[in-house]
Amino acid sequence: MTMRTQAPPPARAAFQALGTTAVLLVTDPRALPAAETVLRAELAAVDLTCSRFRPDSELTRVNLSAGTPTAVTERFAEALQAALRAARLTAGAVDPTVGSAVIALGYDRTFVSLRPDDARPVPVGRPATGWKQIAFDAPTRRLRLPPHTRLDLGATAKALASDRAAQRAAAATGCGVLVSLGGDLATHGPTPRGGWRISLADDHAGPASGRGPTVAVTGGAMATSGVSVRTWRRAGRTLHHIVDPATGEPAAPVWRTVTVTAGTCVDANTASTAAIVLGDGAVDWLRSTALPARLVRLDGTVVRLGGWPPDAHPSDAGGSR
Questions:
Q1: pTM for this structure?
Q2: Quick check: 317 pLDDT over 50?
Q3: Most-buried pick from 61, 65, 91, 289 (CB within 10 A)?
Q4: In whole angstroms, how far apart are CA 185 and each of 32, 125, 258?
Q5: Three-state secondary structure along 149-205?
Q6: What are the structural domain ranges in the chain?
Q7: Neighbouring-strand partners of residue 302
Q8: Cα gap 187→195, rounded to integer Å
């Protein structure tokens, strides 16, 4: 008679960081402290490098030097190149030069500090400067932004932090690691039997209702972008944080959420954000990428692409949020 020992469930840690919830899962509970140390170090570094809310961040310094050549650190260069690659792959639908537009809409401070209902009028939207106007020499890390241009690296920088933290934590501990930063999820190392069970929801921080579909992630990364959670009102109008670079306005609300899986969290986030911006054009564009994707319209209608499986719920799949 043989007995099969069952592996312990993944150990979990969660805390607030980068204006969202950081979640860490590891396949070996003994590795949780070491993996959390790696994650916290990565988050501190990306915050100091790419936060547009910190006066001492490198991004703030770079934005203040717009119009003048400046040298950037290796970490900033990595984040910038990820953002420029996202802009190139999406033909500008995801563009790091939307910083001024985001600020004009009122998102000029951390989200929790925003006024939920601002009476000030909404400024007329202006197109972003455009990523092609950025002059960056990678070997010397010399950067020149066009005058009056502000970068916003938020989306791709957060996804890059998930990728980096998962890879570094797995290397440090030798076990499987999952890192999720507000919907930007990356995995590295061995996967639990049956995969990482992830419940999809509009709000990653909302209460687990048991009604959201569950997917098993067996490797790589997944990202969800949406327009229903990070919203605020201004002059009687509901605004959200994903800006269309072509108009400087919040992207037209066609999709409530878009979830994409890819080899890296940066690529998954790039595709999910682009889909929100592209609106009705997202389906054809995502088909051209061949990435698995799940899009939810405002009325709840679901579109699945690239082999995304039919929805399974926790009671069906045995998963948990």
A1: 0.90
A2: no
A3: 289
A4: 17, 32, 14
A5: CCCCCHHHHHHHHHHHHHHHHHHHHCCCEEEEECCEEEEECCCCCCCEEEECCCCCC
A6: 11-317
A7: 296
A8: 10
Instruction: Count Cα neighbours of 15 within 13 Å in the Cβ-side half-sphere.
Output: 8
- Element spanning 35, H or E: helix 32-50
Q: How far apart are CA 249 and CA 318, in angstroms?
A: 41
Tokens of 215: 């997917």
- Are the CB atoms for 320 and 199 separated by under 8 Å? yes
Q: Which residue type sits at 133?
A: Q
Tell me the pLDDT tens digit for each residue of 8-52. 789 999 999 988 999 999 999 999 999 999 999 999 999 999 999
Q: Which two tokens stand for residue 65?
A: 């030097």
Q: What topology is assigned to 11-317 in CATH?
A: T-fold (3.10.520)
Q: Residue 122 half-sphere exposure, CB side, CA atoms within 13 Å?
A: 20
> 3-state SS of 119-157?
CCCCCCCCCCCCHHHCEEECCCCEEECCCCCCCCCHHHH
Answer yes or no: is pLDDT of 319 > 80. no
- Cα torsion angle, 288, 289, 294, 300, sign: negative
Instruction: Say how far apart CA 184 and CA 42 lie, in whole Å.
Output: 14
The distance from CA 250 to its chain's CA centroid, rounded to whole angstroms, is: 17
The two structure tokens encoding residue 7:
């592996």
What's the rounded Cα separation, in Å, for the pair 50 and 61? Answer: 10
Contact assessment for residue 56 and residue 48, using Cβ atoms and an 8 Å cutoff: yes
Strand residue runs (E) in the chain: 11-17, 20-26, 70-71, 117-118, 135-137, 142-144, 177-181, 184-188, 196-199, 214-217, 221-226, 231-234, 237-240, 243-244, 249-250, 255-262, 293-297, 302-305
Spatial separation of the C-alpha atoms in residues 247 and 127, rounded to whole Å: 4
What CA–CA distance (Å, rounded) separates 109 from 148? 19
